[in-house]
């Protein structure tokens, strides 16, 4: 954690910041190793350019923060005391001159900003969103190993779902089986609400699973991911239950080709936008451009959707250490939808697929 803190300290020096006030759950975890959802209670890491940082958290969470590896000061409070006054008191105890406070404007609420302004009325504020994005964008070896293990569990989840398919079962039946088997392997939380979408419901990129029953001739789309030690995985596979039509096979082949071309385009220095365009061009050439309504992917890490956005207008070049998804899709309302998604780690030699569940069309 100290290396991460040191990098943010350097950013603070460059911006003449007095201190950083980190409150988003993901970023608190990134700098402290402590993952918690405090609801309305204040949880924050305070980082200085030169002094040691401190964590402010509810008293009931203080021991867990220590167990997570936080080795610095913890300012804890109960539900009677005022955490904002305790924040101010700790800064006064350290004789900190507060002139410029770095905050996450993408996360900071107006009410919390007003609390800061009340406590530090002469301070100005600057945004740390971009520097924090940059720090988290490239993963270290430990993060990679965790993401790889999370991807293996996602592969397992798809395999469980495919094996559970049976005519007459509902989408929710299959989800229950997947999540039960994952919990037996120690998975405490899914990265997002698991999707099993069948028939025309699969034509909704963010469809809502329900009591729709598996029927012969339907596409069945699986989109799932797990949270492992604070890091997320995200995989999508699509199969056909029963005999596919020629159009279903054609759509599947186009999506698979589009994904393969996008992955092939993933090289160090290549712009993110060109990767989206590689997949999109293939789909457009086959006449299905109007049925591919979303970007090619997204960054992946502590958050299941994080920086950078893998869209057609993003000129950022790929860098070693990035982790992101590649997930083209075609969604035809009268037929159903196909999406194929993998988690990609960028190495100096090219893309490494973390998710490895087979991608040839499976007919169940």
Q: What's the story with the biggest beta sheet?
A: 6 strands, mixed
Strand arrangement, major sheet: 4-3-2-1-5-6
* Shape descriptor: elongated
Question: Helical residue percent?
Answer: 25-40%
CATH superfamily (homologous) name of the largest domain: Creatinase/methionine aminopeptidase superfamily
CATH architecture of the largest domain: Alpha-Beta Complex
CATH topology label of the largest domain? Creatine Amidinohydrolase
Task: Provide a quick synopsis of the model.
The chain is an alpha+beta fold and 364 residues long. It has helices at 2-14, 25-32, 62-67, 83-93, 110-119, 129-137, 141-164, 171-184, 246-264, 272-285; strands at 19-22, 44-47, 54-58, 73-77, 100-103, 124-127, 189-190, 195-198, 218-224, 226-228, 231-232, 235-241, 297-299, 306-310, 323-326, 329-332, 336-339, 342-347, 350-353.
What would the keywords be for this entry?
single chain; 364 residues; alpha+beta; Creatine Amidinohydrolase, Chain A, domain 1; Creatine Amidinohydrolase; 2 domains; 6-stranded mixed beta sheet; 3-stranded antiparallel beta sheet; 10 helices; 19 strands; 35% helix
Please describe what this structure looks like:
This protein is an alpha+beta fold and 364 residues long. It is 35% helix and 22% strand. It has two domains: 2-137, Creatinase/prolidase N-terminal domain (Creatine Amidinohydrolase, Chain A, domain 1), CATH 3.40.350; 141-353, Creatinase/methionine aminopeptidase superfamily (Creatine Amidinohydrolase, Alpha-Beta Complex). The protein is built from ten helices and 19 strands. α7 packs across α8 and α9 (246-264) runs antiparallel to α10. The termini are far apart. The mean pLDDT is 98. Belongs to the peptidase M24B family. Its cofactor is Mn(2+). Keywords: Hydrolase, Manganese, Metal-binding.
């Amino acid at each position: 954690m100290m290396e991460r803190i040191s990098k943010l300290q350097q950013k603070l020096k460059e911006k003449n910041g007095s201190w950083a006030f980190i409150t988003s759950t993901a970023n608190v975890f990134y700098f402290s190793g402590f993952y918690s959802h405090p609801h309305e209670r204040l949880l924050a890491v305070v980082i200085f350019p030169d002094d040691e940082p401190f964590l402010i958290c509810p008293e009931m969470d203080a021991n867990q923060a220590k167990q997570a590896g936080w080795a610095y000061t913890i300012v804890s409070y109960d539900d009677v005391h005022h955490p904002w006054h305790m924040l101010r008191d700790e800064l006064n105890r350290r004789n900190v001159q507060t002139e410029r406070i770095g905050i996450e404007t993408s996360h900071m609420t107006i009410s919390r900003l007003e609390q800061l302004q009340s406590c530090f009325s002469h301070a100005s504020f600057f945004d740390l969103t971009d520097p924090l994005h940059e720090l988290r964008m490239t993963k270290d070896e430990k993060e990679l190993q965790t993401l790889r293990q999370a991807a293996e569990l996602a592969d397992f989840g798809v395999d469980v779902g495919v094996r559970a398919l049976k005519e007459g079962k509902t989408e929710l039946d299959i989800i229950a089986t997947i999540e039960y088997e994952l919990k037996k392997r120690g998975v405490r939380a899914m990265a997002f609400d698991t999707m099993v979408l069948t028939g025309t419901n699969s034509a909704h990129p963010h469809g809502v699973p329900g009591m729709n029953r598996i029927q012969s001739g339907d596409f069945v789309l699986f989109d799932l991911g797990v949270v492992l030690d604070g890091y997320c995985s995200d995989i999508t596979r699509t199969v056909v239950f029963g005999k596919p039509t020629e159009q279903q096979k054609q759509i599947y082949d186009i999506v698979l080709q589009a994904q393969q071309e996008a992955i092939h385009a993933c090289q160090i220095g290549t712009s993110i936008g060109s990767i989206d365009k590689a997949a999109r061009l293939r789909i457009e050439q086959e006449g299905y451009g109007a049925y591919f309504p979303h970007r090619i992917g997204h960054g992946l890490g502590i958050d299941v959707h994080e920086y950078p956005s893998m869209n057609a207008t993003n000129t950022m070049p790929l860098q070693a250490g990035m982790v992101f998804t590649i997930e083209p899709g075609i969604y035809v309302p009268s037929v159903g939808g196909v999406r194929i998604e993998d988690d990609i780690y960028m190495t100096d030699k090219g893309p490494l697929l973390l998710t490895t569940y087979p991608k040839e069309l499976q007919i169940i």
